[in-house]
Design a protein that fits this description.
The longest helix is centred in the N-terminal third of the chain and has 101 residues, at about 45-145. Helix 1 packs antiparallel against helix 2 (about 45-145). The protein has helices at about 15-40, 45-145, 150-170, 175-185, 190-205, and strands spanning about 220-225, 230, 240-245, 250-255, 260, 265, 270-275, 280, 285, 290-295, 300, 305, 310-315, 320-325, 325-330, 335, 340, 345, 350, 355, 360, 365, 370, 375-380, 380-385, 390, 395, 400, 405, 410, 420-425, 430, 435-440, 445. A hairpin with a 4-residue loop joins strand 33 and strand 34. The protein is elongated. The protein has two domains: about 15-115; about 220-445. The chain is about 40% helix and about 25% strand. It starts with 16 loop residues before the first helix and ends with a strand. It has a 17-stranded mixed beta sheet that branches. It has a ten-stranded parallel beta sheet with strand order 1-3-5-8-11-14-18-22-26-30. It has a seven-stranded parallel beta sheet with strand order 6-9-12-15-19-23-27, with no helix packed on it. It is an alpha/beta fold.
């Protein structure tokens, strides 16, 4: 049985004797009224009047008894109605309580079912993840076993297996690239078949670094320090933090049209190298690099700093290149021709203690900031014809062994020469404002005044 509400008092049953008491009260009340009225009737003088009054007294007493009984009946009926209404409210409260209990039970059952389903889903996902990881590990181990084979053809198959693994699993691409780079850093035996395997590894790396391809692997860096590369072609690639420190690059190494980010460490040995139309904001470090063939930066737009300290160039061209940050060629050696025709140096340029053994061409080049050529030796023909120096130009202690021409050069201020020397036997065209004197039979000396 439901527990009554705290505001409801327990319902008490009416004892049977209350009805008897009510009846006795009605009779007693009627008797008292009858007795009183009969006493009044007996006081009447005339007999006829007395008889009438006695009849009325009896009628009135019966009426009182009947009225009292009716009142008691009304009270009983009212109590019955109140009890019915209270029972109805109690039934409704019990029904609402039961419904709320059923709702709570249903909500609890649903929550338990949902929790159980989530647990099953997690278990299924965990099992699927574990299975995928096991499969991935097995494929990786198998591919590495193939790469470690003594047979070049088997190694080639292992490289292709690694590539497929990286293509299907983006989270493993950095690891796959690191493995390919490590393979290229290993000593290369003198075997034509091994050369083909290594070229395949190179193509795998660069194939996935082109942003215009559907199989692009973005954000992958290449650590090829100490590697031996043959005809390495990264043209059109997006390169992030490329490291070629101490690498040996034979044949033609191409970065034509590449986009570079981060830092490019290119302190390596190159034969021919193509950097035409290279773009990006990467810092390019070519310190102590050696180029035994031709190096071309034609049309490059370099947004980061360029450092070529101690770099050795056999032949180099920066025709039409734009260098937006500080560029340094200090102590660089240019064994053959060096062309900077129509190049734009939008920040500082430092070419101190450098050596130009052949032609040095800066025709129509633009120097938007300070240009330093102090202690630089120009061994061949040197042309600054049509060049624009918008900042300070300093040729202090420079040596011009061949013809030098500044014909048509625009200077924002008088250049500093500070005892620069020029061969007396060669024809020269100097900027206005410089004083040229003879040092001895072989040399001319330049002074600022």
């Amino acid at each position: 049985m439901p527990t009554p509400s705290p505001r409801e008092k327990p319902l008490r049953l009416m004892p049977w004797w209350l009805a008897l008491v009510g009846l006795l009260i009605a009779v007693l009340l009627g008797w008292l009224v009858l007795d009183w009225l009969l006493a009044e009737a007996d006081r009447a003088v005339q007999p006829d009047t007395r008889a009438t009054l006695r009849v009325d007294a009896i009628r009135t007493a019966l009426t009182v008894v009947a009225g009292t009984g009716g009142g008691l009946a009304f009270l009983v009926a009212a109590r019955r109605q109140w009890i019915n209404e209270r029972a109805q409210r109690h039934q409704e409260a019990v029904a609402a309580h039961d419904q709320a209990h059923r709702d709570r039970v249903q909500a609890h059952a649903e929550a338990v079912a949902e929790t159980g389903q989530r647990h099953q889903d997690r278990q299924a996902a965990s099992a699927e993840h574990d299975a995928a990881e096991r499969r991935l590990t097995e494929l990786y181990v198998r591919a590495m076993e193939l790469v470690g084979s003594d047979n070049p053809a088997v190694r080639l198959g292992g490289l292709h297996a690694l590539e497929r693994l990286g293509q299907d699993n983006p989270g493993q691409r950095s690891t796959i690239v690191a493995v390919l780079c490590a393979y290229l850093r290993m000593p290369a035996p003198d075997d034509p078949r091994e050369t083909e395997v290594r070229r395949t590894a190179q193509r795998m790396l660069t194939r996935h670094l082109r942003a215009d391809r559907d199989d692009w692997w973005p954000g992958v860096g290449l650590d090829l320090s100490g590697a031996r590369l043959d005809d390495f072609d990264a043209g059109g690639c997006t390169l992030v933090d490329l490291d070629l420190t101490d690498a040996v690059c034979t044949g033609t190494t191409s970065f034509a049209g590449a986009v570079v980010r981060g830092r490019m460490r290119l302190t390596a040995q190159f034969e021919d190298a193509v950097f035409d139309n290279l773009t990006g904001d990467a810092e390019i470090v070519l310190d102590d690099a050696r180029f035994t063939g031709r190096a071309s930066f034609d049309g490059a737009d370099l947004g980061g700093e360029l450092s070529c300290h101690g770099t050795s160039f056999a032949q180099v061209s920066f025709h039409g290149a734009t260098l937006r940050r500080t560029s340094s060629f200090d102590r660089a050696r240019f064994a053959g021709s060096a062309t900077f025709r129509e190049a734009a140096f939008l920040s500082g340029l430092s070419v101190e203690h450098a050596t130009f053994e052949g032609y040095a061409g800066f025709r129509r080049a633009r120097f938007a900031d300070m240009a330093l050529f102090r202690w630089t030796e120009f061994g061949g023909e040197t042309l600054f014809e049509g060049a624009r120096f918008e900042g300070a130009a300093n040729f202090g202690r420079a040596v011009f062994r061949g013809p030098a021409s500044f014909d048509g050069t625009t200077l924002a201020r008088r250049p500093l020469v500070d005892q620069a020397r020029a061969a007396a036997s060669a024809p020269h065209v100097w900027p206005e404002g410089l004083t040229v004197g003879r040092l001895d039979a072989e040399w001319l000396v330049l002074t600022d005044s």
